[in-house]
Amino acid sequence: xxxxRAVFLATTMLTTSATLAKADVNVVTSIKPVHSLVAAVxxxxxxxxxxxxxxxxPHTYALKPSQAGxxxxxxxxxxxxxxxxxxxxxxxxxxxxxxxxxxxxxxxxLIKLNFREGGAFDSHDHDDHGHGDHAFEWAGVxxxxxxxxxxxxxxxxxxxxxxxxxMVILESDDIEASEELAEELLESKDxxxxxxxxxxxxxxxxxxxxxxxxxxxxxxxxxxxxxxxFAFFTEHMPLExxxxxxxxxxxxxxxxxxxxxEPDMGHHDDHADHGGHDDHDDHADSEEHDDHDDHGHGxxxxxxxxxxxxxxxxxxIIEEALAEADPANAATYGSNAxxxxxxLDDLVAEIDAELEPVKDRRxxxxxxxxxxxxxxxxxxxxxxxxVSPEVLPGAERVSALQEKVRxxxxxxxxxxxxxxxxxxxxxxxxxxxxxxVLDPLGAAxxxxxxxxxxxxxxxxxxxxxxxxxxx
Length: 471
Hints:
This protein is of the alpha/beta class and about 475 residues long.
């Protein structure tokens, strides 16, 4: 074979390969974190378009004429929800009517949290849970040898009793003696978010357990380091999540029963009888508990991407939508998604370790957008001062905000890139609080598949730098 012919064939093969790899879909994304995750799944195939660029806010954004053209030509539009990108909903219906709309807030497996009120986050009485005088519905003491156990939450009649639930695990042989601490931990907004297959340990922080809608049962590994007696306090009755087998098992699959419990559920040899929720009238009116809108103060917080475990759920739905729209490249989307999820797992471990020294230090945010990050990594935001970047506060408002910052006794106050530094300095005047910047959208970060990871790392660095300096 001549050199010329060999070069021609090699060039032809490369051209053909590139043609096969090119995406057959036009993809539009709303905000930078969404764009980053979509770009990561599309690597080697294509590049999505981004609508809300730079430091622009999705709450107040208006489409440019050129972007209307992008929507008109779109096959797929990835966005979060009406609550975050209200500008986009009607545009998708009118301009991108031929596109497949993918509202990512509807992704299976997301841990969703209600908006909190401004001010001190831990000031609420939690009466909305319907637990009477207690933050927990059930408590049980187990006599456990050291080892790893499995606590399962199953769907009953096709649904989880709730999309999430709080739990506290304490080393104790006395429910009554531990009750006050358990109440305090369950009522605190400072909890650790956990999802399917995550490990739970004895801790002086509550866990918020998110249940995976894609699975018939969500399982948590309970790691017990030494023999002893341990008290578990749960926000809801374990029976509400028990279908065909016992909720708590040892490493060999044997049922583990409590040695004491309140209220007494007895022994559960016949788990098939637990189908349905007839004994739990407090949940009967919640119509599948759709996002707990009735529990919140304005619906579900849409900033779900700030928990990297939620980002994994977003990547899953992104990969599915791309593969369905462009089956020729489905294998590439699948392998890319798997790689991104692995990186997200590594990111969680990295950030958790980095923030360990500052998890007990209090801080305040201008804009309450960070509770998903807080719960995943156990950091201690104590309130927000509800400043809008679009409205400059007057003298009376500034004075009230200064008083609120002092009253919350925070180590640091965090603003966002769009706030004037002078305003931040004025609001923290005459307080002992340091100042920092948190950027939930990655405004100053270069767009692309690595933006999401840089965004989360930057948030952790900003928190640690300010809290270590001021603590």
